[in-house]
């Protein structure tokens, strides 16, 4: 039994290192989303930090600020969803079959 426990601990340590590496890689990735047919673009890092927002001049209408706000919100929500989806897909491989509520 001692050997099995030692082997299991070794496997857990290997899995932990793989998870840490995967998380580091995710944090280095960038994601982008657009709204309004590309009129607004939002870029985020895998940490969900927004690093860039690009707005085409054509969409800036002083009489319709609400539309611009809506486009920024839509693009931001989309890019955050992309990060979440990628994180869940990447990190979920480590928790498959473990039945651990609240994990990724």
From TrEMBL:
<dbReference type="InterPro" id="IPR036894">
    <property type="entry name" value="YbaB-like_sf"/>
</dbReference>
<dbReference type="Pfam" id="PF02575">
    <property type="entry name" value="YbaB_DNA_bd"/>
</dbReference>
<feature type="compositionally biased region" description="Low complexity">
    <location>
        <begin position="1"/>
        <end position="16"/>
    </location>
</feature>
<feature type="region of interest" description="Disordered">
    <location>
        <begin position="1"/>
        <end position="24"/>
    </location>
</feature>
<dbReference type="GO" id="GO:0005829">
    <property type="term" value="C:cytosol"/>
</dbReference>
<comment type="function">
    <text>Binds to DNA and alters its conformation. May be involved in regulation of gene expression, nucleoid organization and DNA protection.</text>
</comment>
<keyword id="KW-0963">Cytoplasm</keyword>
<protein>
    <recommendedName>
        <fullName>Nucleoid-associated protein N784_08275</fullName>
    </recommendedName>
</protein>
<comment type="subunit">
    <text>Homodimer.</text>
</comment>
<dbReference type="GO" id="GO:0003677">
    <property type="term" value="F:DNA binding"/>
</dbReference>
<dbReference type="GO" id="GO:0043590">
    <property type="term" value="C:bacterial nucleoid"/>
</dbReference>
<dbReference type="InterPro" id="IPR004401">
    <property type="entry name" value="YbaB/EbfC"/>
</dbReference>
<comment type="similarity">
    <text>Belongs to the YbaB/EbfC family.</text>
</comment>
<keyword id="KW-0238">DNA-binding</keyword>
